[in-house]
Amino acid sequence: MARRGTLRIYLGAAPGVGKTYAMLSEAHRRAERGTDIVVGLVETYDRPRTEALLRGLETVPRRPATPPGGGRGEMDTEAVLRRAPAVVCVDELAHTNAPGSRHDKRWRDIDTLLDAGIDVISTVNIQHLESLADVVTAITGVRQRETVPDAVVRRADQIELVDMTPEALRRRMAHGNIYAPDKVDAALSHYFRPGNLTALRELALLWTADRVDAYLQRYRTEQGIRSTWYARERIVVALTGGPEGATLIRRAARMAAKSSGGEILAVHVSRAARLTAVSPRELAGQRTLVEQLGGTFHHVIGDDIPSALLDFARGVNANQIVLGSSRRKTWQHALGPGVGSSVARDSGPDLDVHIVTHDEVARGRGLPSARGARLGRSRTLAGWLIGLAGPPLLTVLLAAPPQPLAGFASDVLLFLSMTVLAALIGGFYPGLVSAALATVLLDYFFTEPLHHWGVGSGHDVITVVIFFAIALAVASVVDLSAQRTQQAARLRAESETLTVLAGSVLRGEDTLRALLGRARETFGMDCAALLERDHDGGRWRCVGSVSAIADNPRPLLRPQDADVDVPVGEHTMLVLSGRVLPAEDRRVLSAFAAHAATILDRQRLLTEAARAHKLAEGNRIRTALLAAVSHDLRTPLAAIKASVSSLRSDDVEWSEADRAGLLESIEDGADRLDQLVGNLLDMSRLHTGTVRPLIRRTALDEVVLRALGGVAPDVVTLDIPESLPWVAADPGLLERSVANVVENAVKYRPAHTRVLVRGSALGNQVELRVVDRGPGVPDADKGRIFEPFQRHGDIPRGNGVGLGLAVARGFTEAMGGTLDAEDTPGGGMTMVLTLPADTPDAVPDSRPSEQGEQGGAHAPGARGR
């Protein structure tokens, strides 16, 4: 199998920091070492220093632009594959290719090169990462139109941050090293403000730090390093599920805030034997709080809680642990050290342990909310020790010479007390053994005749029998009570788990991944998945899975791969791996399985419903189109046919005025047909999703002038300042939108009034207002006027089919803008068309509009209604 190429990415915080310069410098270094390296595509943006670096490097010619003259063209991936160099430089990883390219995104072209064994060097800005697009928009006010999935960048073999301070970048901008001089002032006052650049730089540094941290974790795992390396402040918060958890989480958040880049990891350790040891509701609330504060929640399994906590902290390379002060009462400390003391003792010099006080200190833990009181291993061992050693020690004490310390009745009561104590602590069997041993010792050492087997007095026989019966009864009652308590605790844990599960349904938490994650954590498993097949004997496929292990080496693809499998119906199965569950746990697991199948069915039903809705909407549009064609097309056709027939008639001698009137009628009918067909086609394209705008820098005043080409100059007043910013739009679609909106306003304006078309800038947006003094539209109807085939008021059918505003809004929204209706002060209607203003980082795309240059739009002035 051919080797896959390696990917190296230069990451920057903003345009102009020097990513392309660094990439080309690396290309020269490799070329000097004899590496076969070529330039697949580099965008210089007329920067002299970048262009100078291209000299001396072999460059693969670009693929010709489509259509000719529509830009510089895209990378010729096929030519690079034929050339087959060792390394290729490809600029702008997140770039969107022009229509007709091999792939829609440039990173897909790079994947093709990597699959062919070619090493790739590329560049990307932090604002183009998919996960940060919304954050960057909130910071800069500029929406990123070109993004790349984070996973593509994270898969890179090397990521190098190209960093520059905001002040240095602004100086570079002011010197004209990034943009042309006429754009410098606008850039410095908008996108390249110091605050924007500082925030983007912080995003880039933090994202790169996370990537470096992933490399560090992988290296530590591969090398088996367990000691803490102080590369980053990581604070582990130990949660018991008790009420003090929120206090600990907030305290850890304050500690993390003091150290820039600090990370919070909340962890709950539960024992491996049964369901989680605390209320799922409590942990769910604490988990939500951790995530709100920017931390992560983890659930680990371990019988020795201090050891499990320390193992987790060292595994994530943490350097601080936050625990709450013990809730045990004072006398309980005599039973042994608590978790906090054990963690502090065994933490070593690489972990700082913080014991935080809270309101629940020394109030007692009480019964665990989901586990209840049950006999653990230490308690059972103590019961056996008392049952086996207690009677002999008591015998030595009571029978020591020179004479017994008490009478026979007192001896029996003392032995009975010892047996009861063994039963209370250890349960039935330690109590039973203690009772049998005490009976033998009473018979031999304390009943007449002494030191002989057998009881001489009838009263002593009755006493010994009653003693044994009472001891046996007490042991039975204690053991039964422990069993009932354990059963009640388990049922309570199950009921609370099912309650949380049912609550998630009511709250609408219906994602399959969330449910599988809850099942995995509840039962302390490593991985959970839902498998499905089409028929008996068919191949299983995984429809959803979660894992507690990154890069899980044991994916669940078949029921045979799992430790636990629960069938749901005939062809669906919930599977888990990690350990074999006891039979009693499968009851609750079956509820999870049924809910998982329900979620899967619901998701599919929603998908089918959406598909059905789309089909129904398409049918509605087609029905309306047919209705429109049946009447509105027939009317102008009838007028054209009548006029043509009249002109062709030999029976009538038409005057020049009559002939001109008939020709004008034919022209009007043809215009109406052209307008109608154009809008019908546009609406069809909108509903089939085939409208793909080509966004580029556009002068709004030029587009508006073309849109008004078919409108009489005496009915429109134009007010668009020359200082208005450019907009990021498709000129062809924008012209159609403006033309339809203006034509609608002209249609409804009162006679002898003019329609006002005014442009203005508002923040990072540009507004175009089309104002008329017509009758206006009630608020209840403002939304409906943008729906297809809707006409307000008593408008004759011959005046259009009600598609103009629907097409205008559809085109505007396709370009990332909005079109809304407002009341005009003093009466009338104002249409507000809003588009994003162009910014320096939105590189001008000189390619012509797909609609405007390739026949998608009508010529200026031909606007359909």
UniProtKB/TrEMBL annotation:
Alphabetical list of CDD domains matching this protein: HATPase (cd00075), HisKA (cd00082)
Presence of the UniProt keyword Glycosyltransferase in the record: no
Disordered: annotated segments: 834-865
Catalytic activity: ATP + protein L-histidine = ADP + protein N-phospho-L-histidine
Annotated keywords: ATP-binding, Kinase, Membrane, Nucleotide-binding, Phosphoprotein, Transferase, Transmembrane, Transmembrane helix, Two-component regulatory system
Enzyme class of the recorded protein, top EC level: transferase
Main location: membrane
UniProt keyword Membrane present: yes
Enzyme Commission identifier(s): 2.7.13.3
Location of the protein in the cell: Cell membrane; Membrane
InterPro entries, sorted: HATPase_C_sf, HATPase_dom, His_kinase_dom, HisK_dim/P_dom, HisK_dim/P_sf, Histidine_kinase_KdpD, KdpD_sf, KdpD_TM
A GO term, aspect molecular function: kinase activity
Domain Histidine kinase positions: 628-839
One Pfam family linked to the record: DUF4118
Membrane topology: Multi-pass membrane protein
Annotated transmembrane regions: 381-400, 412-441, 461-482
Name of the featured protein: histidine kinase
Organism of origin: Streptomyces cheonanensis
